[in-house]
Amino acid sequence: MSDLVARTGRHQQRYLDGCRLVAGCIPFKYREDDSGESNCKKIVEVLMINSSSGPGLLFPKGGWENDETVEEAAAREALEEAGVRGVIMKNLGHYKFKSKTHQDECSPEGLCKAAMFALLVKEQLNSWPEQSTRVRTWLTVPEAAKNCRHPWMREVLEEAFTKWHAGNVLNSSEDTLSSPDQP
């Protein structure tokens, strides 16, 4: 059982122009390539969790609340839903989607706008707030793309994350990957 508690309710939820504002991230880490085909090559893996409302995997995300920055909200969702802590490395952009489960008086159509980030995982907890309803799975980027439940999340992974990560690896040393982008 986790001593940490997930936030619940909508009383601090942010909305803009009829859209519920959401924050999320693609948690990632590196592992050694154990295929024997390369010299000390590191493989990037991303962390996905099961959906609480149906089949398929997704990235941690949830409501952005009035008392936190969007980056704090993304990091909080990673902790609550996936049990990981890390460093926000890159803003991957904003993505609109329609939620069937979050239609309410502030967003009757269920429209949401998600700010998504790359989060370099520094710690994976054994106990976290939603562990009784969430299963976490580390996957390579191609595996994650195949298993991603939502097309908009697949777009974040394949377009924004993959391009940022490839550019970051090609243009910098691995030390740079342990430091967030500077504004």
TrEMBL record:
<dbReference type="InterPro" id="IPR015797">
    <property type="entry name" value="NUDIX_hydrolase-like_dom_sf"/>
</dbReference>
<dbReference type="Pfam" id="PF00293">
    <property type="entry name" value="NUDIX"/>
</dbReference>
<dbReference type="GO" id="GO:0016462">
    <property type="term" value="F:pyrophosphatase activity"/>
</dbReference>
<dbReference type="InterPro" id="IPR020084">
    <property type="entry name" value="NUDIX_hydrolase_CS"/>
</dbReference>
<keyword id="KW-0378">Hydrolase</keyword>
<feature type="domain" description="Nudix hydrolase">
    <location>
        <begin position="18"/>
        <end position="161"/>
    </location>
</feature>
<comment type="similarity">
    <text>Belongs to the Nudix hydrolase family.</text>
</comment>
<dbReference type="InterPro" id="IPR000086">
    <property type="entry name" value="NUDIX_hydrolase_dom"/>
</dbReference>
<keyword id="KW-0479">Metal-binding</keyword>
<dbReference type="InterPro" id="IPR047198">
    <property type="entry name" value="DDP-like_NUDIX"/>
</dbReference>
<protein>
    <recommendedName>
        <fullName>Nudix hydrolase domain-containing protein</fullName>
    </recommendedName>
</protein>
<dbReference type="GO" id="GO:0005737">
    <property type="term" value="C:cytoplasm"/>
</dbReference>
<dbReference type="GO" id="GO:0046872">
    <property type="term" value="F:metal ion binding"/>
</dbReference>
<keyword id="KW-0460">Magnesium</keyword>
<dbReference type="GO" id="GO:0005634">
    <property type="term" value="C:nucleus"/>
</dbReference>
